[in-house]
């Protein structure tokens, strides 16, 4: 085989007391798709940030074409042909789609030809199989569209190494397939692709070799063909996960907890009717952009509906603000963790108790900090949140662990109706199983749960009932046991 | 019908409409208001603050602020005046260049501290606002620059007309400012180097991840701000002749006011220097016109000025928000709806 | 595994921003005490506070405003308006006691006015309060024009100028009480917690059911009220008012708050930091004044101190890198 | 009564406190004070210190209080804080630090031992009215005042005195139409002057009782080619005004000597601090090269006492060049 294009030798990195990387070695060959898997907090994102010069490794060396390199910043990495799509969407909200794609290119002329730039951007976006006006401001884009823009930015560069950190997390199946096509084309053109994902199906569908990391260490690297799902999982978590995602019998009770009739909001969705019983898990499925989030936002009072009615436990209710919703016992776990979910500069404990603060306050509004810490630590244990303590800022956790903190925050409210939007996006397989188990347990306690998820296997294993949305309307409904990916997909894309 | 116009242009048009509305209002309440003198007065007095505000806009676009501009204007006016008193023979172009360089030097101090060490610009420039002024007071020793100590071409420059059209006069000073604003506008909209200012202000983290050299761009923004404040300092010297240690006092808030009224997002990332020019002109127009309005006595002027500025900003914000919303609704369909949360950004 | 135990907490404190500020305070006091015999007298210590009492009182509430992610540039103008309104009402024959109450009401109105445009209209507070900085000052001018108004009742002037309890004048006691209240509310209550969250991310706060508008409005109203109170204290301290009362104080107040470690972007900072910063600024100014250093040099030195203070983390970073530690956590 | 003479060589710690540092008139006053300091062989210190322009009021109060803490013997104050400084001045007196004002007094007279007045405030009003009359001419016309800030106590007193003087029938034809404020900043004053011209098309004169304002207004009129129509007058420094006087933009203006004012203030303060002078009305003392002065009631401020330096000089093209040197 050829020389590795990029090689890391004995790289370590620590953040204060946390050792995110310990003596990790990894080599990427030209013309391979190399998968990187590992639990949340295993150090995957840190590893790639060390590759692209965003973090300076505490020890170890990075070589390109056998020569040692030290990228000053990610600009230097890009010039050397190393580009990355990071886990967190990193768009420039005030710039247009086209500018977002080309802003960091150094090989373009100083004088901007807007017309040509828009054309080129449109071409690149078209390669991704997405329709997106290159002149639109990025601030108007949905999360998924932002992700698309980032992918477009990365593939527009002349790269020798392309790193993708969970690019599929907010993409639809269709878009993921196009992404795979592009990754393969790049591989065939001799690019080394490093691909990080928690979806093991993708790993097996796409990659040539796979590396497993655990607790900041390199565990193994071998050809994908020589591994099995069970084997990878075992290496990732260090234990056996067989049978974790099997369907469980439903626990729905008689009582209808949430009923929605003819709900609509101009310009977003219309005529949405469904019900969720106590103890039932209903999944709202559909393509990204089907306006599922908007329905949730209406139920949570962020963008209230302007038509239809909402009943809670048989009572008609008006929900005009999140406060109303919360008073009625509705909790909403947002899909956009960084922007809407957590205040990254605040401690884990403060984030967890924020929605339920009145419960912790005594005379004169004083917060009972001991109780707050105790509860937060309880959640950290239950959800297996990896953190040096609950008083550290939430922003220092890995993406998956942040996701768990966000769940804890809403569970702490003890809701009657729990709406979770993409609950396991970016969560590792072990944690995903934990989250699923947690939701089943909650359902068992009589909580009505509405899950919005673009992850079909998740929907199929979790749902008592599956609702499908398309273009702002309900397209159909299946009982959980009889739903199949094919049937759901057909409804979602509107095929007959 | 608004669909074709880019958002920034639309904002500018609205701002111009507000400007026109203010002019019409004063024309209705003040006798003999609309004449050539109005144009001559406003254009010349805006020339200086518009330059400073243009520099300020570069800084604000990168999500920073430069509060030291007033002190820079004062220092440059004073030092250049002092040097001219020593060497009256310096050629005019060299003097202007010197002013720009001194200003850029002050800006570089700010830029170095902010960009190299990642210090918050508001603190750095709050500090240099005081430090630069102290240097001025300390070195002036109570002596002021007077017109008599300057070569005749210096005060002459402020008076020189580039064109006259009947009563309308366009001073060279105004022409210089217009050229600078136009150049800044082209730089910011047409050159890749210019777009970086927007990118950094729009999302500093993303800029880092995308490999944009944020430090260099921010440094440059401060140098530009300092340089334009320096040029403004020279114009200040030329126009007012008498420079004491209070010269330029308060320009920091005036320039920030012009920038935000002109539609630059105070949190960076979006804006337009033509808008800044209009913003500067709007504030100056209101201020100057109020002095002439019989109904408003000297003691009412400030109160009315503050409320009028507020009204102008509110009108501008509401108008552009409504137009944007209508446009978004028109474009709706597949596109995402308006975010329900999020004040401020328009 | 959070750091527990007294020793650990103490170490954490000292490593923190507040620890650093405390060190500076101790050094300054020691330096001043050695440098001049006039420094460590009761009267000088009281003067030290008394001379800037209005600024430091408003700095307490400005801490809330800035942590909340906003700014209030109009405070000094509210102080001026309050003082002038008091003078005017008194001149019109209103009993001083009643006038005090009315003026506090005016302060609340000023705060509510700012809050309306920031919260309900959704304009950036920098713009709104820049405009009201001009407008409120203008209203003060309308009331007093070019006059100075004085001759307030004795009890009023006494409250501002004579000791009330022991050697302490009322303003100092007001400050102490307000500082305690500010500390409790910001650091210990649910309201304070919400102020922080809104400053860090108002979207997150809103999505967590925090009534962002209400909290912001409350903070602005408090700012107006406290500024008006400060204006009254000023009137009592100097015994007369004019249109330029407290002109330009806003920059000094903001300087104090920022030096105390409050982030201009919101969400970061403490009342303790502001209090320590107050001690630093007051001691530094007083020490320099006693050493006959003139005004502009004083402000220059304060400017340098301001820059040095924000450079401390950088300097610490250098030290850390020198000794092989990791990058500082941001 | 006997003329009180200063006893040289005593140790008196003195502070000269201007409105703020950095402008010429105050530096000139300091020159005068230093001259007297040497002359009297004071073995104490003379400290020239002041606040920054933007922090003048609070700064003056602070410096006066600090001087009290330091046990300075006398503070010579050009008051910019109006009556706001009175409590601090009273505290200073109570602690044994004398407060002598010059240039601008404490309006209520509280806490002030004496005021060294540059000229009689009432007569400034008359002089300004006279200059206005002589410039506008017997046919009469409109004029406006461009002052410093609305809070400037001395300017306000002078303008009030002028308004009082204008009531005399001999000024019946000249009409004061407006008063505006240039904040003692060149650019504001300049723009205000132009706005006045726009607002009053028949304006004949701008009267600026401030050295910054008169200079800016004269320049504005000259720049706009309006000198034939609108003249400028007021109080100005000859060095700054000479060209405008020669070219007719500002044919007449007035001022006194700040060097002399500093010198006289120093003498008065020294005498007061050494106890030679009690500070009672009627006491006469000798102030070196400036001759003898007598403490008198201040006619403008009930209960307050002053030492009147007077007279001042009206500058025209005949004498301005010599004074500018
Ligand atoms: N900026 C930082 N400051 C402090 N700790 C950090 C920082 N970034 C990452 N860490 C820590 O480093 C470890 C590895 O994090 P990393 O983001 O690399 O994990 P990951 O494998 O990408 O996880 P995920 O799958 O959840 O994205 C975690 O324990 C995390 O808390
Ligand atoms: N960047 C953003 N800024 C503001 N609001 C956003 C943003 N992204 C998403 N939203 C809100 O969330 C909604 C998301 O709708 P989207 O079109 O993504 O449908 P969806 O069915 O929820 O898709 P998904 O599968 O991502 O949940 C938007 O209409 C908007 O209200
Ligand atoms: Mg990661
Ligand atoms: Mg969604």
What is the string of SSEs of chain B from the N terminus onward? HHHHHHEEHHHHHHH
Mean pLDDT of chain C: 89
The CATH topology of chain B is ABC transporter involved in vitamin B12 uptake, BtuC
CATH architecture of chain B: Orthogonal Bundle
The coarse silhouette of chain C is: globular
Q: How big a fraction of the residues of chain C is strand?
A: under 5%
Helix content of chain C: over 70%
State the CATH class of chain B: Mainly Alpha
- Arrangement of strands in the largest sheet of chain B: 1-2
Query: Which hetero compounds are present in the coordinates?
Result: adenosine-5'-triphosphate, magnesium ion
Percent range for helical residues of chain B?
over 70%
Report the major sheet of chain B: 2 strands, antiparallel
Total strand segments of chain B: 2
Number of domains of chain C: 1
Approximate shape of chain B = globular
Main sheet makeup of chain C: 2 strands, antiparallel
The SSE string of chain C, one letter per element, is HHHHHHHEHEEHHHHEHHH
Beginning-to-end CA distance, first to last residue of chain B: 20 Å
Q: What value does the Rg of chain B take, in angstroms?
A: 21 Å
